[in-house]
Amino acid sequence: MKIYEKAPAKINLMLDVLHKRPDGYHEVEMIMTMVDLADRLEMSALPRDTIIISSQAGYIPLDEKNLAFQAAKLIKERYDVRSGVYIHLDKKIPVAAGLAGGSSDAAATLRGLNRLWRLGIPDAELMELGAELGSDVPFCVTGGTALATGRGEKLTPLKSPPQCWVILAKLPINVSTSEIYGRLRSEEIQVHPSAVKMQQALENGSFTEVCGELGNVLEDVTLQIHPEVAHLKETMIRLGADGVLMSGSGPTVFGLVSKESKVPRIYNGLRGFCKEVYAVRLLT
Ligand SMILES: C[C@](O)(CO)[C@H](O)COP(=O)(O)OP(=O)(O)OC[C@H]1O[C@@H](n2ccc(N)nc2=O)[C@H](O)[C@@H]1O
Ligand SMILES: Nc1ncnc2c1ncn2[C@@H]1O[C@H](COP(=O)(O)OP(=O)(O)OP(=O)(O)O)[C@@H](O)[C@H]1O
């Protein structure tokens, strides 16, 4: 039997950091939603008690460092599953991009193995397992649009944004999430984006208000190290995107666009100097 799961990328519509916690993580307030750019996972049972990962992407680890491997190992151990699994990852989401590619693969593995091995684990429990793998994994288990608090694992479902185009552009630079959080001085943050106002904008179903409330306090940190990301943002605005923000710890920048007729100009304008550009829809 084969099980297929789609693992979509997320974007952060807003990301605020309240303070650093004694455990080293940061207390956050984020609103996240999914976009229609996804990895695809194929899972099949193996008679031997082993986990094998393969991928067409040559640039991700295929051993225990892979988040899908870690998810499979965790669920196997916790539910005492004695059979093995072969997982093929068809990677489409850029890696280390701020789009939670690895986290979404981990979440898809938890969902898929729950089905493959008929474990009957409720979503809430899958999300708890996910939290052991990474802060973004619980959100990726259910997706949708949600407010995430705590270190990102406490979730409240929200109304999805009005449908629009999302242009994603990733420069060929590597950003480490722990380095960005490590450099952040939360007490020095000048402007905090508002989760309340973004929730209101979503409630109102107002695309203009959503664009007006976009904000990410990690942007300043990443832009200081990589000024080219600021240039990318400016270019996207100049080309006509309605709202522009860096996702997560970056370096991917996304632009929200309501009019389809504007998409080709923005897409082509960015492709001029950025190899990885995608024009996708929200997963509402
Ligand atoms: C930047 C975001 O992607 C936005 O959605 C998340 O906040 C980070 O999610 P993630 O990559 O799943 O994060 P984790 O794998 O749990 O943590 C990576 C590193 O980021 C830092 N980290 C992460 C989440 C958080 N609330 N505070 C932190 O300080 C920690 O140094 C941690 O070692
Ligand atoms: N299945 C996977 N897909 C992509 N990267 C993975 C995977 N498993 C482990 N990794 C490793 O995880 C690191 C982060 O990659 P990932 O694509 O998850 O970052 P990200 O999009 O910035 O995530 P986040 O937004 O959650 O911080 C990379 O160094 C990569 O080698």
Automatic annotation (TrEMBL):
Entry keyword annotation includes Phosphoprotein: no
SUPFAM superfamilies: GHMP Kinase, C-terminal domain (SSF55060), Ribosomal protein S5 domain 2-like (SSF54211)
Enzyme category, top tier: transferase
NCBIfam families named in the record: ispE (TIGR00154), PRK14608.1 (NF011202)
Family: Belongs to the GHMP kinase family. IspE subfamily.
Reported function: Catalyzes the phosphorylation of the position 2 hydroxy group of 4-diphosphocytidyl-2C-methyl-D-erythritol.
Protein name: 4-diphosphocytidyl-2-C-methyl-D-erythritol kinase
Gene of this entry: ispE
